[in-house]
Task: structure prediction
Amino acid sequence: CVNHGGRGRLGQVPKKGISRISHGDRQTFTNWINSYLKKRDLKAENLKEDLADGVLLCNLIEILSGKNLPKWKSADAKMHRLHQVGNLNIALQAINAEGIKLVGTGAEDIVDGNQKLIMGLIWTLIQKFQISMDETPT
Result:
């Protein structure tokens, strides 16, 4: 379950570490992403597949950061790997511009479905955008 109001699972590192993420952890991460993507009537079901073209990740970063990203290619059935990598590079550059350092994660890793790195990326976004928001006094 995603806990938007306070601590809970999002305030803790997954018990097994990023290298051993359970189905429940994947679902929690997916739910967290979808809580933001719904603002644009978008939805992820399988992060490994749904983030591969960069479209959902670009949308997510725009929503989280409140900034428009440089032009990226919209999803279509014929999207080539070159465009997928291009979209993901735009998203990763925007993440870096937010002060988030991703070590060892490249666009190709996401296109290729490297689940460990994808989940690490999402966990980093949760730490930056959810947990830091929860700790900000209102």
About this structure: The chain has six helices and no strands. The radius of gyration is 14 Å.
